[in-house]
Amino acid sequence: MNCQRLKNWFEERYDFEELKRLTKHKLVPTHQYEIWYYTGGITLFLFGLQFITGMVLAFYYIPYFEHAHKSIIEIVTKLNMGWFFRSLHHWGAQLAIVVLFIHVWSTLLLKSYRKPREFLWFSGFILLGISIFFGLSGYLLLWDERAFAAVRVATGGAGNLPIIGNFIKAFLRGGIDVTGDTLTRFYAFHVSILPLITLFLIGVHILLVQYHGMSVPLSLEKKPQKQIPFFPNLFYKDLIIWLIVLGIVVTLSTLLPPEIGKKADPLAPTPENIKPEWYFLFLFQTLKLFPGEIMGLNGEMIAIILISCGILFFFLIPLFDRKSSRGEKSFLFTWIGIIYFVYFVVMTVIGFLS
What we know:
Radius of gyration: 23 Å
Order of helices and strands: HHEHHHHHHHEHHEEHHHH
Structural class: mainly alpha
Strand order of the largest sheet: 1-2
Number of helices: 15
Oligomer: single chain
Helix content: 55-70%
Distance between the termini: 64 Å
Shape: globular
Largest sheet: 2 strands, antiparallel
């Protein structure tokens, strides 16, 4: 069956005319800030890459604490191109989180969360949180001493939340401490629960983008708008950028394959100079600013509460920024976004260098 006959076969059964009309008539605004539009598409591409490489690795990974570390060693040393797929999965995850951070902050600074797009912001923010949990759960699957210590610190920090902290810690660990049960639990999160939630949220997020259309920055909203067709203009640009991103991921994967540490030993002391992954460094550094006790209260618990309040405020910004919703300039929330960004970068750099 040649291409034309195959096309006719489908068109006899399904009506693609509506989809064709939608594609041809869909227009997107073009302006000096349109570069930020592509961060959403890059994130979607990297998520796709993660799903594909993750499925390949799942064929050979053994999610049991006595074999997990050895199975990864065998993937990178014995499996044909195994090291490359694992490296691709690692760097794809790192870049996905970086681009998601950029996407969220560009949305904040351009006020793209303003009414009626609040749910776009909420769904995107939750996707960022899930991506970080993807990173944490995937990190433990290595079952090396650094991953073991990092997860013990991260889940222990969650345990300092008042009232629900102990429940969250026990739920994540599957018991009192990080054990083989934690590995099994994190594997279930990583390959089934988180992917399902992610696919659902990506679907909701894309539907909302189609429903509301591309956001125009607040500063340009009242000026005459130029528009270009989505297909083929923007579509081809997306493909070119995805190809460049793929080249970056492949280059990093080839030149800088991630290391694998010694197998985790729950009875061994925590290795010296242990640090969490880069996206947790600002939290790690913030915790170090607080003394062990403040006015008779646990200093770490106070730090966790303040950090949680800061994240909750960031999440609810669309509800607080009334000026942007009315189409007025909102310098206060621009500065709030800049302060959050500077704090994150500075604390991450300090945490990395210290």
